[in-house]
Amino acid sequence: MRTPLIAGNWKLFKTISEATAFVTALKPLVAEVQGVEVVISPVFTALSSVAAAAAGSRIRVAAQDCYWEEEGAFTGEVAPGLLKDAGCSHVIIGHSERRQYFGETDETANRKTRAALATGLTVLLCVGETLVQREAGDTFTVIESQITGGLQSLVAEELKQVVIAYEPVWAIGTGKTASDEQAQQVHAFIRQLVAKLYSQADADQILILYGGSVKPENVKGLMSQPDIDGALVGGASLKADSFAAIVRFNS
Ligand code: PEP
């Protein structure tokens, strides 16, 4: 019922030529894969070249952030409409690195989400607890407030263009993956929360990705969990062969 989605977040890596060479290498590796959506997320400067290189393939392109205004005196910002213009179909919002280093809050993530949806982009909304929060027993409270804050005032129709990425901060870039059961527990909680905020039908259709040191070796176990619908992949998405192996988790 839900088509799995594997998204690569390249963070601050790859020049335009490295990014387009990656697409050329990835295309044949994922061409035969059925029933999986594939998204890659390069830096802003490479978006349009990557989108052109990916044209005609199953690979879609995401930006790693956006602003909430379409234009104006906002030096350094990039509007959702400009991302569409560059060939993006998706945008990552609220990544923990944006929250940690760039002052992203649930409120700004919500403003960005609403603007991106209004432009027709699909939003990958990231949530996740820190190690301190997990050890204090606050995981569910943190996730609940990030999701209610991030989805604030969105109607059910808009929710169809939202993908939630659960990324425990302690598992990002650390090599420590949440166990299949730990991840499933939070994913199930998120789905119940969406059912409470919207409806069971909305909860049943929403994609919930797991992120945090996903690799070819652990993706199968994670994807076998009933509420894990895909992965947001950082480090292992930087090489075409390891990213393709994750996309091909089912073969
Ligand atoms: C990420 O940046 O979203 C991420 C999950 O990174 P990594 O896979 O490297 O932990």
- Largest beta sheet: what is the strand line-up? 1-2-3-4-5-6-7-8
Q: What structural category characterises the helix and strand content?
A: alpha/beta
Helix content: 40-55%
Instruction: State the distance separating the first and last CA atoms.
Output: 19 Å
List the uncertain runs.
none
Overall residue-averaged pLDDT value:
97
The shape is: globular
The total of beta strands comes to 8
Please tally the helical runs, counting DSSP H or I stretches of 4 or more residues: 12
Instruction: Give the H and E element order.
Output: EHEHEHEHHEHHHEHHEHEH
| Cα-atom radius of gyration | 17 Å
What small molecules does this complex bind? Answer: phosphoenolpyruvate
Strand content: 15-25%
Main beta sheet strand tally, sense and closure: 8 strands, parallel, barrel
Overview of this protein structure:
This protein has 251 residues and is α/β, with parallel strands linked by helices. The protein is 43% helix and 16% strand. It has helices at residues 16-30, 47-54, 80-85, 96-101, 106-119, 131-135, 139-150, 156-159, 180-197, 200-205, 219-223, 240-247, and strands at residues 5-9, 37-41, 59-63, 90-93, 122-127, 162-166, 207-211, 230-233. Strands 1-2-3-4-5-6-7-8 form an eight-stranded parallel β-barrel, surrounded by five helices. Helix 1 (16-30) links the parallel strand 1 and strand 2. Helix 1 runs parallel beside helix 12 (240-247) and helix 5 (106-119) crosses helix 7 (139-150). The longest helix has 18 residues, at 180-197. The chain binds phosphoenolpyruvate. Phosphoenolpyruvate is lined by residues 9, 167, 172-173, 211-214, 232-236.
